[in-house]
């Protein structure tokens, strides 16, 4: 487990909130930094890299209904390559910029249909 330096957590630790939200991972001077897992009270979960208390780097975000995104994050937003799995079986593999699909991507439906092409501003 981590240690306290100058009244701030450092190293591996756990932070819990009254609403049931919970973070377990690395702290640097009291800030989520490095690898960790955050579970919100609503059941959403992010497991991956953190920088300055924000999702940054590679990580996986899941929702209780079965949706899941795996890929890159920057300043808490989907950025760069990633894949999104929908609860109904649809999926998208491609690039994101500020949470929106961009550039080349591939969208698949459970019935076998697909779209492979360019995206702009999420469309």
Task: Write a structural description.
With 123 residues, the protein is an all-beta fold. The chain folds into two domains: 1-62, no CATH class; 65-123, no CATH class. 0% of the residues lie in helices and 67% in strands. The chain has no helices and eleven strands. It has strands spanning 3-5, 8-16, 22-28, 31-39, 45-51, 54-62, 68-74, 77-85, 91-97, 100-108, 114-119. Strands 1-2-3-4-5-6-7-8-9-10-11 form an eleven-stranded antiparallel sheet, with no helix packed on it. Strand 7 and strand 8 form a beta hairpin. The chain is elongated. The protein starts with a strand and ends with a strand.
From the structure above, extract its key features:
single chain, 123 residues, mainly beta, 11-stranded antiparallel beta sheet, 67% strand, elongated
TL;DR of this structure?
This protein folds into 2 domains: 1-62, no CATH class; 65-123, no CATH class.
Across the major sheet, the strand order is: 1-2-3-4-5-6-7-8-9-10-11
Q: Domains counted in the coordinates: how many? A: 2
Helix content: under 10%
Distance from N terminus to C terminus (CA atoms, Å) equals 45 Å
Low-confidence stretches: none
Write the layout of secondary structure elements.
Elements: E1 3-5, E2 8-16, E3 22-28, E4 31-39, E5 45-51, E6 54-62, E7 68-74, E8 77-85, E9 91-97, E10 100-108, E11 114-119
Antiparallel strand pairs: 1-2, 2-3, 3-4, 4-5, 5-6, 6-7, 7-8, 8-9, 9-10, 10-11
């Amino acid at each position: 487990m981590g240690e306290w330096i100058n009244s701030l957590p450092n190293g591996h630790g756990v932070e819990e909130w009254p609403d049931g939200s919970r973070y377990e991972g690395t702290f640097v001077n009291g800030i989520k930094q490095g690898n960790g897992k955050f579970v919100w009270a609503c059941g959403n979960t992010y497991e991956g890299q953190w920088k300055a208390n924000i999702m940054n780097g590679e990580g996986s975000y899941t929702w209780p209904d079965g949706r899941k995104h795996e890929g890159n994050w920057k300043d808490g937003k989907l950025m760069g390559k990633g894949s999104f799995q929908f609860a109904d079986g649809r999926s998208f593999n491609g690039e994101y910029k500020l949470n929106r699909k961009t550039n080349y991507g591939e969208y698949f439906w459970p019935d076998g249909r697909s779209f492979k092409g360019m995206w702009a501003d999420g469309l």
